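Aggregate trends can hide what the representation actually does to any particular protein. The sequence in question and its structure tokens are set out directly beneath this paragraph.
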Amino acid sequence: MQLVKAAAVALNQTPLDWEGNEARIRQALRESRAQEASVACLPELCITGYGCEDAFQYLGVQQQAWEMLQRLLPETKGMVATLGLPLPYHNGLFNAQAVCVDGEIKGFVPKQHLANDGNHYESRWFKEWPEGVQSTVTLGGKAYPIGDLLFDIGGVRIGLETCEDAWVANRPGTPLAQRGADLILNSSASHFSFGKHEVRKRIVLEGSRAFNAHYLYSNLLGNEAGRMIYDGGALIASRGELMAEGPRLSFRDVLVTPAVLDIDATRTAQRASASFQPRFEAVEPGLVAIPFPWPAVENEKATPPAAPAWELSPHHKEEEFTRAEALALFDYFRKNPQLHSLATSLSGGVDSAAVLSLQGIAAKFAMDELGVAGFQKKLSHIPGIEQSRTPGDFMSRHTLCAYQGGENSSAETRAAARAVSKELGAEYHEFDIQPLVDAYEKLGEQITGRPLDWERDDHARQNIQARVRAPGIWLAANLRNALLLVTTNRSEATVGYSTQDGDTAGGLAPLAGVDKEFLRESWLPWLQKEGPIGFGPITALEKVFAKPPSGELRPLVENQTDEKDLMPHRVLNMIERALVRDKQVPAEIFQRLRPELPELTPHELGNDIRKVVDLYFGTQWKRDREAPSFHLDDHNLDPKTGNRMPLLSGGFKKELETMWGVVEACAQREQEKRQARSLLAEATRPPVAPLPSPEKKAPQREK
């Protein structure tokens, strides 16, 4: 029985953080060796960081990556390790894995399938390596094999896939298996998305089953470059069974997940498989044979890994969202050494309460997992961080919030802001903005030559209130070297329901990747009543639900609400998904949603679609200026990474005209159906028997 102990590694790297990235790779290799692993699979592009973007094109960056690889080679003595880096070859740049064996580079395997959908744009920087092609590359005066390679290392055959390679139909693992691969290593940078981990797990399990091989999957961890979140979750599978699984959404820098692999067992399975057809070639192209003395390994019984309680929760999406956001926010904050605090403008509504809640949750989760010393070390750039010995200490010293009220602000929102900040322990202030609003309206009177009124100046009067709030909270943030957090959600971003240089002011928009319906109808009610495992409820959120969401920019007597200004959030989200995610034109959206929204008339639905489309195209300039946001699913509105749309366009005017013809035809058909049903009901109604005449009574004589 030949046994090999292998480790899949999750790393929290940062683009171009040469010293930090090198230290974490060293730690990963040393921890793997300490756990007696002879194989270590590290994440994609772990040397430079995955999110370098156009910095990949700098020759100096490519040279730094090569030099770091040379420095790391001694750490691979006595083991096999894959280290990812950008590799120049024939005037092209390739996303490659360096296969290091016993302290030496034995070859490079470039990625064959680049990720170019959703948030990814790999073909801007890298070229795809063609299947079945092998060559040599000369680096530092030495020639190395490069290409579609299979490594025979001490009699154990090891092949590689890189992230997207495993997601396509013609994945490289198939020919590798036909050539007798015992072990396939997948180095990934697979970003977080709701429910995506289960898809990854199926890909890994199915690959190991179909290939009759052992399969190792590594992944990045945390907020690597600012927008995308990586959840780690290393996986090791064998012949369709999960052998080991690493934790997800951890606050640690390095996570090593090991397992003992029985090489003879997979070979026996291949021989017994009727579907397995080995490839016969006199001389195998791309086979790199390397002598290597595999160390003796004691067999360990593989037991299915136990999932943490939150992964099994009936509120899994809420738990997953909470942990992804908390980790992303903590990493974004700690990776900006000039920042010492966090600042939020509280409105007393859903979005700002959610942003402040996430700060408290992030502090609690990070300190619980890292310990006080580990938490302080991660934030060691902050003066006085040693005084934060509890999450409450951190919140009171390093989170600041302010409720900025005027004459249109309600007592309910003021009370909600005060209560939530008090329960979370944040530093809280109240600013009276009405004198500033009045002063600006005086300027407006100079411009118009008349007093401003709500009938003629509604838009300007609402916006000046939102804009007046920005300088005050910016001042507070600057005085504390704080990261100002924007509270805009995706539903608002879709239609530009925000005031530029007002409530969009800030450096990061943590909620811009999630819709208002999920926040108000699912996540916040759950957070108020139950909350995430390990944190519990935030009971003060009950006050946030005292009144419907409102910008409170018009007089209180008007009972302004977001849904009155726009439409029900449910309808808005359905239109947004069809328009942005599914790339449907207005007529297609109408035909798709008409059966799903029977409570609306055809004209009401058509008007809602027209409103969303007009606002979506008309406010692209706002999204182009939005603060960076976290990506929480495979479609988003970020014009820099996920949804590139023109600033100027025809705005689907022709398409809206076409849709309105469909709306009118639908309304006519539905009217005819109603009339036909009415006539049928009238015709089939049974005759009504006449009522009997009432008996006549003799009049009574008055007494």
